[in-house]
Design goal:
117 residues; mainly alpha; 2 strands; globular
Length: 117
């Protein structure tokens, strides 16, 4: 991880922790939604979103916003784009999720996220 930012180290760590916390929250809500039992109405052919859908969508927006703050602060890592990886992860790309998790691992916030996959 390299940092081209003029921010102080404490502010850098704060942004990284915020991102990793939000990434972990998104992972938790996504995995809870995808592994949960479908609604009875959905099984009957109704187009009903599970109750956690709004939470997952909200968590996705939050982690994308956090990635954009990292990007604006020029907190780069491993030659990949944190915003692109985050957007793609929220869209279902397991490889991108793995790169986002690796960012948190290398930032020292590995306990805030789950391994991708």
């Amino acid at each position: 991880m390299s940092s081209c930012s003029s921010d102080d180290p404490a502010q850098t760590k704060e942004r990284q922790q915020d991102y990793c916390t939000k990434l972990g929250t998104w992972q938790d809500t996504t995995h809870a939604t995808t592994t949960g039992e479908p609604d009875a109405e959905a099984r009957e052919g109704q187009s009903v979103q599970p109750p956690k859908f709004d939470n997952t969508e909200s968590a996705g927006h939050a982690v994308i916003d956090a990635s954009q703050r990292l990007d604006r602060a020029s907190l780069e890592y491993g030659g990949t784009d944190i915003v692109d990886d985050t957007v793609n992860a929220v869209g279902g790309d397991i490889g991108a999720e793995g790169r986002a998790v690796s960012y948190c691992d290398s930032s020292g916030f590995e306990t805030l996220v789950s391994s991708a996959g």
